[in-house]
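Record pair follows.
FIRST:
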Amino acid sequence: MSDAQEAIGRNFLKTSAFAVVGASRDRTKVGNEVLRWYQARNLNVVPIHPKESEVEGLETVADITKLTAPSTTALSIITPPRITLAVLQTAKDLNTPAFWIQPGAEDEAVIQYVKENGLNDRVIYGGPCILVLGDGIRSRL
């Protein structure tokens, strides 16, 4: 992880609320693992799923516009790249403070959008996974 990504990761994990876009009821899916990572650390997390009403005992919201406070909620994104791009576009308008795009949830269009819209200092992408690096970053907060 680069120094810039470390700094973004610290800012991401300092937020008071988190949402998992792409949360899944399937415990074998990364979206479920990421959600449980937040839960295991007693962090304030909301699963986002367009169809499910509950994931891992938590009430879901259908999309990020339904979050109580999107401008203070950091987003973990585990979705196909075309969905990730739409999430970023909406989240930019909502002034979302930070994003952690999990491996595989980005493509060139997502990366280009991040760069062209001044989100470089708020987005982790390109491989680092919160499941692998999150605890290490939290220990340095």
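SECOND:
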Amino acid sequence: YWEYLDLRSALDKSITSAYSKVQKKDEPKLNKKKKKISEINGNVNGTTSGTSAPKPSPAALGLSPDDNLHLVVPEQLQQLVETRRQWVASVGEVFDEKEREFPGRIWDLPQRSIYEGLEDAI
């Protein structure tokens, strides 16, 4: 069970890393000089006009919309998520089944003691 959790955790880290890379590509970059000047002028985002375009949701950074305005997830990230989904569905299901057969054996303490009735046997 611990190997299953370790591999699932490694997949989670890979997904997080890939998503972070996608977000960093789209993240606006301001050099320090522009940032200081904009803060002095009272405008944090660096524009001089009174109105600016709305900022995208932080969760959508790096994901561009398609023709139907649905966010497009990179292929590598989709493959990692699908691999994790299959891992949990196939291997995780085995542990779910064992837990249903023997409650408490995988995730929790057993419902009764393994030493129950030992004194009667002696």
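COMMENT: The longest strand covers residues 64-65.
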